[in-house]
Design a protein that fits this description.
The chain is built from 10 helices and 13 strands. Among the domains are: 1-78 and 151-166 and 178-223 and 270-291, P-loop containing nucleotide triphosphate hydrolases (Rossmann fold), CATH 3.40.50; 226-267. β9 and β10 (208-214) form a beta hairpin. The protein is globular, with a radius of gyration of 23 Å. It has a 6-stranded mixed sheet, with helices on both faces. Strands 2-1-4-5 form a 4-stranded antiparallel sheet. It starts with a strand and ends in an 18-residue tail after the last helix. The protein has 298 residues and is an alpha/beta fold. The structure holds adenosine-5'-triphosphate. Adenosine-5'-triphosphate (ATP) binds next to β2 and α1.
Length: 298
């Protein structure tokens, strides 16, 4: 299978500052990549280069097999983009905003109503966008990014700062797109959603791509699984979280033998814990191409 995105030794410098430092990876159709990292790590700069909106200082990116430097227009016609900064036409209505994009992408206007209904915006279809709340604007941006049914989506913080209802509408809709086979690159500080949605994680720090691998492999590699045991102690009910060492397993065994175990749970490390660990670790020099073909998606 050919990669949908191929990144080769990509670097971006702003003067002396290296925002993205020699990163390489491949993403295959149907994969969902969560690009994570602390503020200023280089995620947005990378996304902008992947979309052909920013020129690399060195290295290259191909999307759908085309170089972003020479085929940006072709690539743009086949991608959907949601960036945190809203750039909707504020004086136009929701319908007019989407109609403009329908014309641009040669998409029938009949695509507008079902999308606005799905995003719970149909009742406000004729209102000017300037009268919309932040959550409504963000949902409209999702509609705009998806109106032409692109096979590849770039989402920079698609639900940041939104109330739980708006966030849920957006994440649920994105889950449907993933089920339908859409490839997605997204950044988000919402680790719960990233963990649920993304089968690939790329972790950036200070411009480097520290890790790029399947979510389940990353969790197995970095996350020390633990066992949470709830048991009847002499002082009443107690809960302990234990690493699975021989000594701890023997202790659990004897609690069992004494019929004191109330509950036993195996706990996987969360993405938040892994994120913290990766931030604390040093930055290994890494230039090899990272990719995991989707043959054994989780
Ligand atoms: P955040 O999570 O805060 O959005 P990020 O990981 O997306 O951060 P970038 O916005 O890609 O980080 O920024 C990476 C580095 O590049 C930062 O040091 C930033 O100051 C710098 N940078 C980004 N854009 C520019 C620019 N136009 N001019 C100069 N420096 C820039």
């Amino acid at each position: 299978m050919d990669p949908i995105i191929s990144v080769n030794r990509l670097t971006k410098k702003y003067g002396e500052r290296i925002a993205v430092n020699d990163i390489s990876f491949r993403l295959y159709p149907g994969q969902v990549l969560g690009l994570l990292g602390p503020n200023g790590a280089g995620k947005t700069t990378t996304m902008r280069m992947l979309m052909g909106l920013s020129k690399p200082s060195s290295g290259s990116v191909t999307v759908f097999g085309h170089d972003t430097r020479t085929h940006a227009k072709l690539i743009h016609s086949r991608i959907g983009v949601v960036f945190e900064r809203s750039n909707l036409f504020e004086n136009l209505s929701a319908y007019q905003n989407l109609a403009l994009f329908c014309r641009l992408y040669d998409t029938p206007l009949s695509a507008i109503q079902p999308l606005l209904e799905r995003m719970d915006l149909w009742s406000r279809v004729q209102d000017p966008v300037k009268s919309f709340s932040k959550g409504m604007k963000q949902r409209l941006l999702i509609c705009r990014a998806l109106i032409h049914r692109p096979p590849l989506l770039f989402l920079d913080e698609p639900a940041s700062g939104l109330d739980p209802v708006s966030s849920k509408i957006i994440w649920d809709y994105l889950k449907e797109q993933i089920t339908g086979g859409t490839t997605i690159v997204l950044t988000s500080h919402d680790m719960t959603e990233v963990e649920e949605l993304c089968d690939m994680i790329g972790f950036m720090n200070q411009g480097h791509l520290i890790t790029f691998e399947k979510t389940n492999i990353l969790k197995a590699r970095f996350g020390q699984p633990t066992i949470r045991v709830t048991f009847q102690s002499d002082q009443g009910m107690a809960v302990e979280t234990l690493e699975p060492t021989l000594q701890n397993l023997q202790r659990i065994q004897s609690l069992y033998a004494e019929k004191r175990v109330i509950n036993l749970r195996s706990m996987e490390a969360s993405l938040t814990e892994i994120f913290q660990k990766l931030c604390e670790n040093g930055i290994p020099p890494q230039t090899e191409v990272r990719s995991q073909e989707p043959s054994d998606r989780r």
